[in-house]
Structures are given as structure tokens and as C-alpha cells.
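Researcher: Please translate sequence to C-alpha cells.
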Amino acid sequence: MTTERNDQLNPRASEKPGTNRILDRKQSYDHPRDILATALCDSEKRAILASWASDLFAVDSSPQLRRPPGVRKPVRYDDILKALKALDGGWKRSPCR
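Model: Translation complete:
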């Protein structure tokens, strides 16, 4: 069985929020507070913030800083964690549709 585009079998498949689409959006933000202020749902915000927290984006010789692609200046790891904790607090939930 070949794994051709699943869109042909399910035309709505391309409308579903995919991880790549969500993570590609990270290039629009410069700070975790920018992500929290968007109209994205909580799980999309969490996906972006979690990718930013990854050691993959750690700044050499300054491991407390992260430089995700598209961000103009490094972001503090603590600020990313605070944003994730704010999502966990859930004072304003944004469910995905």
C-alpha cells in the first residue's frame, strides 16, 4: 500500500491543525507573552512554548537563553516556563476547535 496524500481520502484532513503548521507560527513571535496574547488555543500555545524551551535552541555559553528560529533576540528560559505555567493556571482557557 502506498502512502499517497491522505487528503484525497479525507478532503478535510488539510484543515486540521497539524504540528508543523502550529510550530511554523513561532516565527511571528518574539517573546512568550506574545504567544500568550494570541488567539491560538492553549494546546497550540503550549506546543510553540515547549518547542522554544527545547535544548535545541539553547544559546551556546548561555544555556539559560533560547534563540528559536525567527526570534530577534534570545529569550530567557525562565520566561518560557512562566508562560507555560500561566497556561497551566488556565485563568482564560482557549480550547481548540
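Researcher: Any highlights?
Model: Confidence is low (pLDDT under 50) at residues 1-17.
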